Each structure stands twice: as structure tokens, then as C-alpha cells.
Amino acid sequence: MSKQTYNLAASCWADVKEQTYDVAILPWGAIEPHNYHLPYATDVYESDAVALESARLAWEEGARSVVLPAVPWGVNTGQLDLKLCLNMMPSTQMLILKDMVENLMRHGIKKLIIVNSHGGNIFTPMIRELSVTHPEVFICTIDWWKAFNAEAYFAEPGDHAGELETSVMMHIQPDLVLPIEIAGDGASKTFKTEGLKKRWAWAQREWTSITESTGVGNPKQASAEKGEQFFKDVTKKIAKFIVELSSADLNDMYE
Asked: At 122, phi and psi to the nearest 5?
């Protein structure tokens, strides 16, 4: 039997039956094109890898967290015309999240971390709603790539399939990354309207109108070494958060 049962998908009943968990971690990705060189499930691989490594590090510090199987479907309403880009509506995500919360409550787990890997997944309104209908459960969300200032690691991090994502995938799933030579340069258009261009106003981008390669951000300077360093630093930081949340008193969360 495994002594580290933080990976639910790989655990057996013999591993889990007598184990107590304080925190559940739910990786959440998306299925969409990532330039010409990265796989459709890039966001799924990333969220899963970050969650599992963070949980492993936290487990070594005594935090009993469990990583649930990753949810692969993300909100891709601005990319419906891209072949086999698979969209899930936010309302559907809410139903899935609600079911997961109720499952966790049934097993005595009242702390949930969503490790999000896709910019189109916005969980804050769902968490607000669930705080009313399920107030006994603490839910938070982490956009893992925001844990550190990416500009300290990458010349041009990029917004989608750029240097950051390509480097991380070169580290965690190198066999799935095609030669960088075939990648587009990630050039993209911006809104003409000033507020939208500066991003103090927001509107959905129509993806095929802003980029030919589906990428936003130049991946050409990506490397596995950069990806490894960023991944290590991010997972250490998230692991520390897991440890702190694991021991936190939900009735005494503020100072």
C-alpha cells in the first residue's frame, strides 16, 4: 500500500480507506489549441502536474491533502470556431463544482483548492454563490502561473502558448511538445478601443480575429530549464499554502 495517498486517481481503496484528509485539490484545465506545437490538453497537464507536485511537497510537511482527477473542460466561448476546441459553459462548471463540494462534505473535507490553468475559467462568482449555499466549506482558487512574477523567469512570458507555457510543458511533458521551429510567433492583435486595449475595460476576445496560430506570445525562447525553475518555485509556494490551509481553523481565519 502507498504511504502517500495524495493522488486519488492513482490510489486504491486499501490506501484511502483509513486515511484522513484535510484539504482537497481540484485541478481544472481546458481543451483548446495551443499554437502549432503544444497539445490541446496543455492546460490539463499543467494544472494536474502543479497540483500533484504541490500536494507531494505539502504531504512531506505533514499536510494531508488529496488531489482529485483534473476536470479537462474549460470555458472557451470565444474560440468556438476553432476545430475541436471544446467549450463548457460557466453554468455547467458551477454544477460540477457544486457536486464536488457536496461529495467532499459527505466525506468530511471542508477545504477545497481549485488549481486553475485556463484564463477563461473564472471561479470567483461560483465561490461566492457556494459560500451562501454551503457556508461550512472553504473554497479558494489559484491561477498557478500567477504565483510569481513570470517576467523574472521569461523574456516574454506570453498570454497563451507563449514562452512560459511552452517552457513548463518542455519540463513536464517533453514528449508532447513538437519542435519549436513549427510554432507560430504568437503575434496577436488588440482591441482598437482604448479602454479594452489597456484592459481596464473587459470584453471577450474573438480568438481567430486576434491570432493566426492560436498562440498569443512568442514561444521561441522557451526552454525546459526555464520551465523547470518556474515549476519548482511555483509548486513550493503553493505547497506552503496547502500546509497553512491544512492546519487553519475555519472559524478563525483573520488577523
From this structure: -115, 105
Query: Is the model's pLDDT at 88 over the cut of 80?
Result: yes
Rounded to 10 deg, the angle between the 163-172 and 224-247 helix axes is 80
Enumerate residues 6+ apart whose C-beta is below 8 A from 133. Answer: 98
> Which amino acid is present at 18?
E
Query: Phi, psi at residue 118, to the nearest 5°?
Result: -140, 125
What does 70-106 look like in DSSP terms, one character per residue?
A: PB--B--TT-TTSTTPBB--HHHHHHHHHHHHHHHHH
Q: Output the DSSP codes for 190-203.
A: --SSHHHHHTSS--
Rounded Cα gap, residues 150 and 78, in angstroms: 25
Please give the biggest Cα pair distance in the chain: 59
How many Å apart are CA 112 and CA 169, to the nearest integer? 26
> What does the alpha-carbon distance between residue 98 and residue 157 come to, in Å, rounded to a whole number?
33
Helices (H), the chain: 13-16, 42-60, 90-106, 124-133, 163-172, 194-198, 207-210, 224-247
pTM over 0.90: yes
Residue 5 CB coordination number (10 Å): 21
Q: How many residues does the chain have?
A: 255
For 175-196, write each residue's pLDDT tens digit: 999 999 999 999 999 999 999 9
Report the b/e string of 187-224 with b at 16+ CB within 10 A: ebeeeeeeeeeeeeeeeebebeebbebbbbbbbeebeb
Query: In whole angstroms, what is the distance from residue 232 CA to residue 134 CA?
Result: 34
